[in-house]
């Protein structure tokens, strides 16, 4: 039945899917960790999941309007009977909201979760009347 719908046949379809999956999980690829950015009254709180990472292998920095989380989850060489954990370079870049302050940013790693506190500047919304021509 599949041959009637898909002209390439079952084997070609299976091979194409396997090649796509191999490419998606190829060693050396960049891993984007899961995260959330929460807005609070005086700060933003960015939480990034980085299970199994030590702070020695993780870097947090500001680059202009971006906060960058970068690191590497290193694989230990041992005999494995099951291998589902993904290893490699971790990289994620976050565009900070306009009222985020670069001064006073704090980061801590606890139980596989990186928490970054970003202070907010107190700004009042201004109303500006724009004349029509």
UniProtKB/TrEMBL annotation:
A Pfam family recorded for this sequence: HSP20
SUPFAM superfamilies found in the cross-reference section: HSP20-like chaperones (SSF49764)
Source superkingdom: Bacteria
Any single biological process term in GO: response to heat
Keywords: Stress response
InterPro entries, per database record: A-crystallin/Hsp20_dom, HSP20-like_chaperone, HSP21-like
Gene3D superfamilies noted in UniProt: 2.60.40.790
Domain SHSP: 25-133
Family to which the UniProt record says this protein belongs: Belongs to the small heat shock protein (HSP20) family.
Matches recorded under PANTHER family: 26.5 KDA HEAT SHOCK PROTEIN, MITOCHONDRIAL (PTHR46733:SF3)
Identification of the protein by name: Heat-shock protein Hsp20
